From TrEMBL:
Swiss-Prot/TrEMBL keywords: Cytoplasm, DNA-binding, Nucleus, RNA-binding
Subcellular location: Cytoplasm; Nucleus
CDD domains: Translin
Official protein name in the record: Translin
Entry annotated with the keyword Nucleus: yes
Source organism superkingdom: Eukaryota
Record family assignment: Belongs to the translin family.
GO cellular component, one term: cytoplasm
Length: 221
């Protein structure tokens, strides 16, 4: 019997094991950068509106670092292995998308588009059914990042009142209503997306309660 077949197979297993460890290390660095960016961005919850630019300016260098981290990960992955290992990094890319979505809202009071993801993180959102030819954000990762904005805005509505900004919850309420209407146009069949979308109603309820309380107290018309 020629044992070379098994020797060659073991070489393949060793290479796959090395790739797995390298991917894990790259994801660890990406996770560290995302957590630092999240900590910086969370300062928006304790600042009045006129000081939000300080937060959005401070977060931009961190986006550059996240882009570099994703680049190191992308160097390890070929189109053939993309979906084989995607489950290892998908949560971190969702987190990165969520950071961009929240930052764009704070800076421009609008929804971040896939073009904004490309601008801030350097990689495109795959919005087509074409085969993967390069490292990309999936559409699910982008949409889950957008859904996370409901939770952030629910917190922001409450915290805005704490810093005596009683007008911002009204603006948040209008934006959230429009964003929710947009999601209702989608036929979400992905189980994770569907479950996360169903949880939005709790964030909307929290924002509505803030609105109601402000009106009862006569703080807004």
């Amino acid at each position: 019997m020629d044992l070379q077949v098994f020797i060659d197979l073991q070489d393949k297993f060793d290479k796959e094991s090395e790739l797995f460890e390298n991917v894990k290390a790259a994801i660890k660095e990406l996770d560290r950068s995302c957590r630092l960016a999240s900590a910086k961005l969370s300062k928006a919850h304790s600042l009045p509106m006129h000081k939000l630019k300080e937060v959005t300016d401070a977060i931009k260098p961190q986006f550059a670092t996240i882009q570099q981290n994703i680049g190191k990960l992308a160097e390890l992955i070929t189109p053939v292995t993309f979906y084989k290992y995607q489950n290892m990094w998908t949560q971190k890319l969702q987190d990165a998308c969520a950071l961009v979505v929240f930052a764009v809202y704070l800076e421009e009071a609008r929804l971040a588009t896939p073009a904004d993801i490309k601008k801030h993180l350097g990689y495109s959102v795959n919005t087509t059914n074409e085969p993967i030819t390069e490292f990309v954000f999936t559409l699910d990762e982008y949409l889950l990042g957008v859904i996370s904005l409901f939770n952030e805005l629910g917190r922001l509505a409450v915290n805005s009142v704490i810093v005596n900004d009683v007008q911002r919850p009204q603006e948040i309420s209008t934006f959230v209503s429009e964003l929710y209407s947009g999601f209702q146009l989608l036929n979400l069949k992905n189980d994770v997306l569907r479950r996360r979308f169903d949880s939005i109603k709790y964030d909307i309820k929290r924002i509505e309660e803030v609105q109601y309380d402000l009106r009862v107290r006569g703080l807004i018309s």
